Amino acid sequence: MRFSGHDTFHCKQQWLLKGVRFIEECENVAFNDTSKAIKFLGVGKNMVSSVKYWLESFYITSSHKITPIGDFLLGLNGLDPYLEDEGTLWLLQFYLCHTGYASIFNILFTDYFKDKVSYEFTEEKVINFLRKMIEDSDLKAVSPNTLSTDFKVFIRSYLSISKDSKTLEDDFNSPLLELNLIESSEKDVFRINKTFRHIPPYIFAFAVMEIADGLNKNTLSYKLLQETIGNYFCMTNDSLEEQLQKLKETSDNFVYNEDGGMANIQIKNNNKVERDNILSRHYAQ
Length: 285
Prior knowledge:
Structural class: mainly alpha
InterPro entries: DUF4007
Pfam families: DUF4007
Oligomer: single chain
Radius of gyration: 19 Å
Domain DUF4007: 3-283
Protein name: DUF4007 family protein
Strand content: 5-15%
């Protein structure tokens, strides 16, 4: 589990593109030269580490090399370098949760609420949950200050909570803000915004295929998709079920089955060509 690396900074809108351009220019040694990184990225020393962290967290890079999805979106011929397409934001949210590089995102959108009746949460309750989770996993203890900082970065990734005009613009510079996944009902009380969502169909289909590919399966249960995509995207059960039933409209590669009240999705052919084709069709619209 990882609860640090961002150096207290949430990801800024332009960082991912700047980071990719920097790696393209300097290749594998890009972040080895901090002075060069500071000059190229136009940020301070601590922010250089943060840019590197967020590139990995969003799976734009892996082991500091640009991934296929990173190149597809942000490369020299990338289809959405300025993150203007809503579908791109859902892809970023998907990978942020699914890779688990930045642990708190996967944990808060999935594990934390497994035994909860309410989607409300506070910093204190989340930190207590994380400390117990770390202890139960026999991992090295993480200081409460580190967990508190990580929680605040999580919140700022989705919600602008500053009333200070000097930092308000900075708060609104988070790419995931417009997904409206987190709400604040009152001071220091937050809520996962589970609602009926319409995820762009091809983006949703691609995410389903990515999960199946990672598990090396061609059939995924409704329960598994509820615990992954449904939670990552804060979808109600009704909206998840509706989108699963409509998957066949994106491609005849999908088959929705309901056997004895247990729904599942079968993917007939899930190779890289098929996944790339699904993704390209979204950006061709």
